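Fig. S4 source data, part A: sequence.
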Amino acid sequence: MPKITRNNWIILSAILFFSAVSLACGIPARWLTNTQPAPVTEAIQAIPTAGSSRVELVTDEDQVLVDMYSHLNPSVVNITVYLNQDGVIDSFAQGSGFVYDDQGYILTNAHVVHGTDGVEVTFSDGLIREATVVGEDLHSDLAVIKVELPQGTQSIPLGVMDELAVGQTVVAIGNPFGLEGTLTRGIISALGRTIPALTIFSIPQAIQTDAAINPGNSGGPLLNLNGEVIGVNAQIETTGTTESNQGVGFAIPVSIIQRVVPTLIETGHYEWPYLGVSGYTVNPALVKAMSLPVEQGAYVSSLSDSGPAQVGGLQETTEIVSQDGRQIEVGGDVITAIDGQPVKTFDDMLVYLTLQTSPGQEVTLTILRNGQYQDVTLQLGTRPTE
């Protein structure tokens, strides 16, 4: 879990209801008016405002967003969860979700529905129906619920992770502060973030965006301009003095959605591969303290007792030395590759394990120990559920 400094908090963007509301925690060509927006100076249309002779200037980009909202908002839902408190069932939390397929499966965040005693789904036309929780995964903060869909309700397709780029325009649709059917627009401000999960583990490849995401947006879709889901909105980072959006929000990436959700639908849970290693990315102080012949890699700081890495013979920190006034861990292995794939940062290893491996699978780690490279083959375990 990344260290949060300057009193910044990571906030799960769901709304809780007690006696009052408080905080808890492009488009397919078939429905675009213009799939390739021209420069704004060439793309301005004059449209009279209803009931007025006044002329509004609307760009093609505006029309893309208007069309997107019209087409996709019926597939985004408001989720209200209920808890039994002292024998009384009452509304407790609120979030967002979206239609995953035509069978009635709806994708949302695990932190929206975890521990609930009842779930209701409100559609864009005001129709409310009961839903059931099909499965949840606290490690990825994803959950699937199921509801009877109104006739004609369509699912939203998934995008492709490899096609995303920093600076790309994105749109979030959800229910911030309980305000149903809200669209906000922004860009992808960073890719490859690692954010906290609901467990001691972390979620890699998260998408950072400046599209406004606020409490109640949790579980709603982050969309590209093709109208495809590229992430599930989950967290915001705040200053600690306010729980509202400060321009930095995070979404669970589509790469993890594609891996986890089908299994949640089939079995109700997802098993993650487990190496049993804690550490960090190699830095200049470590290179100097250990006289490393490399400047990049994943340093093994500690090993879980009886975990796959410990059983497989990896070595953790053996001592702490003082260097230039700093305390530096030394003696642990440095992982430079996994199954032949270069490991330049600790996150590189986490991403590979998350997207390319399964429990019980053998992996080969290339490590640097005492100035010598060697390969260590071990069998991955299953992450603890706690």
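Fig. S4 source data, part B ends here. Helices lie at 60-72, 110-113, 254-267, 284-290, 308-311, 346-356.
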